[in-house]
Helix-turn-helix transcriptional regulator (Mucilaginibacter ginsenosidivorax), 302 residues
Amino acid sequence: MITNTSLEDFYHRNGASFHGETSKELGHFNVFEAEKLFNKATGERIMPYSRRAYYKISWLRGKSKAEYADKIIDIQKNALLFATPKIPYRWLPEDGNQTGMFCIFTPDFLSPGKSAVLLDELPIFQPGQVPVFQVSETEINEIEYIFRKMQRELDADYQYKYDLLRTLVLELIHYGQKLQPMLAISTAQNASERISSLFIELLERQFPLEPPHQKLGLRTAKDYADRLAVHVNHLNKVLKEVTGSTTTEIISNRIIQEAKILLKQTHWSVSEIAYALGYDAPAHFSKYFKKQTSFTPVAFRS
């Protein structure tokens, strides 16, 4: 199951003190020593599947696994992991000797006052990538130095410390982009069920739509494939095997279902419903709705 994890959820779950800067001008940034945090409710350190509202760069030391929709990456000793809000994953420690550090930051931290889309244009955050990198002891020393410097600067009173912290975050990103991604393990045995389940989770979390100015975020098969970091053809193949329907058919059926609910249970105009469901023109929505139901939206409502 995919959950949504906000900054507040992260701090509450890990029993951490809210520290660092949060504002529209600066965004949010913080850095942690991994062994000092754990799930306050369960006492565990497993990170469940989650769509996080922040980016995360982790230096991992110890045997563990990073599990994505259709792949599992075995971490034997040292790794550098980059996480984006768009791609859910979970991390599972496999022994009690887990150390390392990580930093979290919101999209607007690196580009204050600018579009956060710029961050997603970096190669390391592109959908379909495997953003986990095995690193040597020599590389770990260099990476740890950057993290420790972040920690020192965050606690300092230097007037321009956030400019310096942005530089250090970018240094880690470029460090990772020069490394070779780790090989993913095939998970054919249960990957189809996992991908199908995660797809349905993503689809259902688009609804209900409220208020009228909210617009459907994911509409196409490629939108969902990108979020799950799988190829769109693979997603289609898996869903056809598991459900008997294509990705597009499942999305379309759910959109029509939501359209019926909105027509019967709200006072939204047909134009507002069309906009919320991602149609640029009400006429396109009306034509599609009639094709699927044999009724126009107005006739169905009445």
Observations:
- The chain has a mean pLDDT of 82.
